[in-house]
C-alpha cells in the first residue's frame, strides 16, 4: 500500500444556508456513490454531520497522493458537486493536512502490536 507519510489529506467544513441540509446531504450521497466506485486513488472520503450544529458538515478526505486528489477534482461527478453546492452553502473552510502519526488501516503497513 502506501507509506504512512505519503497520503494527501484534507478536512472541509461546510456551513449550510438555512433549510438546505437535506438537499446538501442528497447531493453528497449521489457524489459519494461515484467516488466509491470510480476513484481508486481516493482512499477515504468520510462525510459527517456536526453534533449540535445541524447546518454544518465536515468531510475528511484521504488520497493516495496529490495526483490522486488532482484527479478527484477533475471527475465529472465532483465538478457537478462543486457547482451544485454553491447555492446550498454559506461558507466553506478547507484545511490541508500533513500526516504526523496515528492509527489508520489505510496508511499503516499492517504490522500490529496487538
What does this molecule look like?
- This protein starts with 7 loop residues before the first strand and ends in a 17-residue tail after the last strand.
- It has three helices and four strands.
- It has 114 residues and is an alpha+beta fold.
- Helix 1 packs antiparallel against helix 3 (76-85).
- A hairpin with a 2-residue loop joins strand 2 (42-50) and strand 3.
- It has a four-stranded antiparallel β-sheet.
- Mean pLDDT is 90; it is low at 110-114.
- It has a single domain (8-97), classed as Alpha-Beta Plaits.
- 32% of the residues lie in helices and 33% in strands.
- The longest helix is centred in the first third of the chain and has 18 residues, at 21-38.
Which stretches are low in confidence, meaning pLDDT under 50 for 5 or more residues running?
110-114
Tally of individual helices: 3
Which structural class is indicated by helix and strand composition?
alpha+beta
- Lateral strand order in the biggest sheet: 2-3-1-4
The SSE string, one letter per element, is EHEEHHE
Chain-averaged pLDDT: 90
Shape: globular
- The proportion of residues forming helix, as a percent range, comes to 25-40%
Strand content: 25-35%
Note the gap between the termini: 20 Å
Number of domains: 1
Amino acid at each position: 500500500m502506501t507509506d504512512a507519510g505519503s497520503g494527501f489529506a484534507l478536512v472541509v467544513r461546510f456551513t449550510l444556508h438555512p433549510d438546505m441540509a437535506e438537499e446538501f446531504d442528497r447531493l453528497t450521497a449521489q457524489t459519494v456513490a461515484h467516488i466509491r466506485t470510480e476513484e481508486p486513488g481516493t482512499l477515504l472520503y468520510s462525510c459527517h454531520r456536526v453534533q449540535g450544529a445541524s447546518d454544518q458538515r465536515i468531510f475528511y478526505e484521504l488520497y493516495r497522493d496529490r495526483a490522486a486528489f488532482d484527479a478527484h477534482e477533475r471527475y465529472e461527478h465532483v465538478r457537478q458537486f462543486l457547482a451544485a453546492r454553491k447555492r446550498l452553502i454559506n461558507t466553506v473552510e478547507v484545511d490541508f493536512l500533513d500526516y504526523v502519526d496515528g492509527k489508520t488501516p489505510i496508511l499503516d503497513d499492517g504490522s500490529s502490536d496487538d
